[in-house]
Automatic annotation (TrEMBL):
<comment type="subunit">
    <text>Homodimer. Heterotetramer of two MnmE and two MnmG subunits.</text>
</comment>
<dbReference type="InterPro" id="IPR004520">
    <property type="entry name" value="GTPase_MnmE"/>
</dbReference>
<keyword id="KW-0460">Magnesium</keyword>
<dbReference type="Pfam" id="PF12631">
    <property type="entry name" value="MnmE_helical"/>
</dbReference>
<feature type="binding site">
    <location>
        <begin position="343"/>
        <end position="345"/>
    </location>
    <ligand>
        <name>GTP</name>
    </ligand>
</feature>
<dbReference type="InterPro" id="IPR005225">
    <property type="entry name" value="Small_GTP-bd"/>
</dbReference>
<dbReference type="Pfam" id="PF10396">
    <property type="entry name" value="TrmE_N"/>
</dbReference>
<feature type="binding site">
    <location>
        <position position="117"/>
    </location>
    <ligand>
        <name>(6S)-5-formyl-5,6,7,8-tetrahydrofolate</name>
    </ligand>
</feature>
<dbReference type="InterPro" id="IPR027266">
    <property type="entry name" value="TrmE/GcvT-like"/>
</dbReference>
<keyword id="KW-0479">Metal-binding</keyword>
<dbReference type="Pfam" id="PF01926">
    <property type="entry name" value="MMR_HSR1"/>
</dbReference>
<keyword id="KW-0630">Potassium</keyword>
<dbReference type="InterPro" id="IPR027417">
    <property type="entry name" value="P-loop_NTPase"/>
</dbReference>
<comment type="function">
    <text>Exhibits a very high intrinsic GTPase hydrolysis rate. Involved in the addition of a carboxymethylaminomethyl (cmnm) group at the wobble position (U34) of certain tRNAs, forming tRNA-cmnm(5)s(2)U34.</text>
</comment>
<feature type="domain" description="TrmE-type G">
    <location>
        <begin position="213"/>
        <end position="362"/>
    </location>
</feature>
<dbReference type="InterPro" id="IPR027368">
    <property type="entry name" value="MnmE_dom2"/>
</dbReference>
<keyword id="KW-0963">Cytoplasm</keyword>
Amino acid sequence: MTDTIFALASGAGRAAIAVLRLTGSDTALIVAALAGRLPPPRHASLRPLRDAAGEVLDEALVLWFPGPRSYTGEDSAELHLHGGPAVLAGVSAALLGAGARPAEPGEFTRRAFLNGRMDLTAAEGVADLIEAETAAQRRQALRQAGGALAERYAGWAERLTRLLAHQEAAIEFAEDGLPNDLEDRMRAGAAALAAEIGAHLDDGGRGERLRDGVWVAIVGAPNAGKSSLLNALAGREAAIVSAQAGTTRDVVEVRLELAGVPVWLADTAGLREASDAIEAEGVRRARRRAAEADLVVAVFAADQAPDAATLELLAPGVLVLANKMDLAAAPAELGGVAPLPVSARTGAGLDALRAALEAAVAARAGHSGEAPLTRPRHRAALREAAGWLAEAGAAPLPELGAEALRAALRALGRLTGRVGVEEVLDVVFGDFCIGK
Ligand SMILES: Nc1nc2c(ncn2[C@@H]2O[C@H](COP(=O)(O)OP(=O)(O)OP(=O)(O)O)[C@@H](O)[C@H]2O)c(=O)[nH]1
Ligand SMILES: [K+]
Ligand SMILES: [Mg+2]
């Protein structure tokens, strides 16, 4: 027996149609109480919905999904109502009166997980799909919701279980004094699995970046034209531009979408020995932002000698710009680095700049063949599993090897939700919206 829960599954506010979703043991009874009788499974039927006093609240499309072939695995239903607030209030009150209760955030998907309809990574994929704002985010979330990570991790858990079974057999045979090579095979298997997990972890954070956004920091000398370039890329006057050196102090951030990836583009204070405390704090923030950024864009003014502070930030992977090309015949020599020539004033080179940014962002985030891990939670659990596998491979006693394999299995179990899940459930489902 489960509580029967309901929630608005469509957006809040006045709309043409509002979808109320129900799931739980008494779904059939409750729907029949409002709609008179249950429609045939998975067929939409138009029905008057009545309250306990018999007043018609709405003419609604009623859908009935008997478990276990439903999203949650339990008896479920959808009521497609007219979207006005009074209709919604009336039907909600009738559902409450009939014994249903409002759902907690994520409770539908939580039940789907508990009923074995999906693992935790797939449930997280559903949450990401609801949050997805760009096409690349949508593709990544859809793959994960479809079980791309679940399958891989379940495969690893299966291999681990087999290694553990062999290790336990090795322990038994040793007690019987029989020679066996089971331990050697365990060591080889643990090393191979640890290497595979290591390769998966060593993805440069592509999946997490696509989910959270790529951080790009524009840095350079005062008056190089950083704010002008930010505004040009954002298509609006987000940052103040002036001829006065030291105009920008705080970090000014705009959100862009480049190559289907969300990007946080930050304009920063010009790098120099600041004359006052506020500007000095701005320069400190600029340096910190550059250090934390996934991509640094270093801007030089083409009509000036390159400044030492910006030159110091040049490293492989930094995108180097020579701005104000309208004022110079050729960009200054930057020690072998070929800057991208642009002019924020005339717009020359801005298309090439955008293309270079897209390429750099695409190289740092998103799809590269296999489905990437997408959350720090995944990274932590996989690191732990790989660590225990290394320990298993090096264990001086077979019993310790078995113990390490069990610990690795538990770490994978927390990742997929198969073992020791209670403590992670709230973390995973807490950030869901109600109705999913
Ligand atoms: N001729 C020319 N002037 C430019 C160009 N880009 C910016 N400027 C001018 O250069 C001056 C400084 O521009 P900003 O965008 O404020 O420069 P900044 O790097 O943000 O400066 P700080 O915030 O003070 O570090 C302004 O007067 C701009 O109009 C350009 O491509 N060509
Ligand atoms: K300026
Ligand atoms: Mg500025």
